[in-house]
Amino acid sequence: MGGGSSVAARQDSIPKAAHEPAAGDGIKSIRTTSVFKAVNFELYVKPNIVVMGFGTVAILCSAIYLAYMKSQLKESKTYVAIGEDDSKVLLLKKSKWD
């Protein structure tokens, strides 16, 4: 009754791997979920010089701003003290000679 043809049909319906991993494919060849790909976006996209440049400039600007704020705090004649009621108070620096 055509038993041989049904076995061949079942074997054809089994999905084969669409892409066999080859040397050099890296993490792109691993089966993952879309959540993993969304969280680890940088692993799956080609390097982009424009985005990399923007990120580098943004981090450098942030570091320069933090250094500027620290220098301004050191130059000012104020400091932060903690009061008896655990509140922070901005006070002027005083010399022991004043």
Structural notes for this entry:
By secondary structure, this protein is mostly helical. The chain has one domain. It is built from three helices and two strands, in the order αααββ. It has helices at residues 3-13, 34-39, 49-75, and strands at 78-82, 88-92. The chain has a two-stranded antiparallel ribbon with strand order 1-2. A hairpin with a 5-residue loop joins strand 1 and strand 2 (88-92). The longest helix is centred in the middle third of the chain and has 27 residues, at 49-75. The chain is elongated, with a radius of gyration of 32 Å.
Task: Give a quick rundown of the structure.
The chain is mainly alpha-helical and 98 residues long.
Q: Please work out how many helical segments DSSP would assign.
A: 3
Mean pLDDT comes to 79
The best one-word shape is: elongated
* Count of discrete domains: 1
**Rg over CA atoms:** 32 Å
Strands across the major sheet, in which order? Answer: 1-2
Stretches with pLDDT under 50, minimum 5 residues: none
The chain-level structural class is: mainly alpha
What is the first-to-last residue Cα distance?
A: 111 Å
Written as H for each helix and E for each strand, in order along the chain, the element string is HHHEE
Helix content: 40-55%
Q: How many E strands?
A: 2
Main sheet? 2 strands, antiparallel
What percentage of amino acids are in beta strands?
5-15%
